[in-house]
Here is the input.
Amino acid sequence: MRLPVRANRSRRRNRGGGSRGQGLFVASALTPLMLYMVFWTLFPMIWAMLLSFFEYAPTRVGGPLLGLGGDNPFVGLGHFANMLSTSPEAQKFRTSLKTTLMFAFLVLPLNLAITIPLAVAIEAVKSRLKTVFRFIYFLPTVTSSVGVALIWGYLYHPQRGLFNMILKTVGLSPQIWLSNPRAFYFGVPLALWAIIFTYLWQDMGYNLVIFIAALQGIPKDFREAAVVDGANIWQVFWRVTLPLLRPTLLFVCVMTMLSSFQVFDIIQVMTENGRPQDQARVLVLDIYLSAFRFQRMGWAGAEALILFLVVLIVTVVQMRLLRTQWEY
Amino acid sequence: MSKRMLFGLLALVLILSLAACGQPAPVEEPAPAEEAEGEEQIELRFWMHQNPAFIAANEEIIKRFEAEHPNVTIKLESFEYDLFIQTLQTSMPAGTEGDIMEMFGSWVCSYADRLAEMPESVLSYPEAKEQFYAAPLDGYYCNGKLYGLPNEFNIENGAVLVNPAMYEAAGLDYPPTWGSMTDLLSDAQQLAQSDGDVMNVSGFHFVSGDGLAFQFLAGILQRGGEYWKADGSGMDFNTPEAKETLQDMKSWVDQGVTDAFLFNGESNWVGDSFFSNQVAIGFIGPWIVPVGLEEYTDMEFDYLPIPNYAGDKHYFAADAGWGKLVSPNCEHPEMAWEFVKFATTNADNAKFWNIGTGTVPALKSVAADPTLLEETPWVEASLQVLDYGSYVGPLPDRDLFWYDIVYPHILGALQETETIDEALDAIDTESNAMFD
Here is the structure.
């Protein structure tokens, strides 16, 4: 029996396997987001990349096309060549890049060293307590970064801060946490360590919740089988749990590195533009100052492009090292 | 409801949401001024940074102007300080900046391409020089053209905050009679306090982002030196006067009047730490005084003249001050310039503005007005040295010079992370790189 044509039309499927109405709905739902991404993410990225080939300041009247040319001349790869020179801005760029890499590569292992064991410990407690712990540890993550930076700035205060009060109480010398350029530990400035600990405190809740969810997803059979075979707690963690966390580890590592490379607000609030002596001056802060304080948007665009490439390379390397071909 | 209708309804909701998000919030139009017969209604936008005292002062000036010009409405729009700079930078290329803007004088030359030149019919530069002090006025004078007029003589030199209670507690005579910096430093040594190795009260806190550069340049000038090259093509800090000035500052720290690690621009900034009783004598501009009077009502303090660093005249460099300018995109430039002149050259208005904002006047007649001190007695110390001030000069980037070049290297010398010669070398090299 032939079906009515109208019924056929309503059930006609598109190539993706859904109906035409569903396709229309998907398109409608995605269009605003795509428009948003194009106008507020893609266009600014393209504009920043374009600016990196010009010596551009918005206060100068340039050529007729988007203000480029004229008093905002085309310099080609001049900014990138300058990054290798001995000019003051090049030295600040290299310092900022080094500080950013130091920050990111310290935050990641410290973050994992705290969150993975903590997640395992929380996963082992009763379900009611699990919720309480998750709430407590996730709370800093949803707190405003500026608020966190202000409060931790007070904790680090050299005369009135809590940390120095504790140090004095136990008979140790108080520290000038955020403004002593001569204090280094393990080759890292003390001011940077102070910011790292603040950042870890705020950020670890996010990874902790992810790891807890991942641990809950690992079938208990694997761990029970290992115990039956005689593995102790440490061996179960190291030989069974950790390898099975690899997919989650990849996600956490990539996301943590991405956010570490882009740290800005905590440093801007806790230090004055990355001081003392630029020891906490990260690349995003240098980009911000170059663009909006000193009106060198071409130079800032070039720095931003380099940051993008660095982040891209690090992300690709992580994905290569941590990707898995299996699932459970 | 069929699935098709449901999808269509959801799509419609999404599209309407997008349209709603794109709609600007409705702006309440101000009530139009009474239309004077035969006169065009003019609306001007006035842009400024957010500071309650400044906003209040400008609002009153606007009200006075509108009373005299019933066909004119001036809409004041204020922006948080950092956002103001960014807003100027993004709006100017788009031609959407305010018709009249209140900007800081040392920014003007870097924005000159985007500003309207003041017509000589409003006020010529020679005429302006007779009415205004050179230091604030020259910030608005770039490449032979005048772009606006100042309301404020921005001065950080000339006086310091002093805590009388600390003097009394230390058993020192008050008010102090400092004949020279040696006397001030002697007091400061006795006023400084420490808890073990940690200084918790600075005797003389002079290490701040703004203050260090002002003191450094003043020290050079008072020693008879210069920091500009003879041909004006750049700057020269490898001079005996610069070295002596920096050596002096270092010696202050070595004498124990302050701890450069604990009391600087980032840690225990002078404006905060003085009012929390951590500083006995603090180097900062007179603009802090109304802030202190308003926010620390229980605290007794004074603003007293500081001795010369050297020589017998208190020469110093100043970086202009807040003033008013006009956009080249303004549709009614004559009226805009009329307002600028009204706000800056009219002595009553200028005085009102200075009193309201707690700033030192740029207009000579206001500075000479004896009634000024009845309202703002603390500016007396600054008024005494105004004649010795000169404009800092045509720095390509004032903020870069002040905060990224001079301050960090002088601080480095005080903290001994660099030698005095290294600091001076770096300041010289980096400041001249600005001209490349």
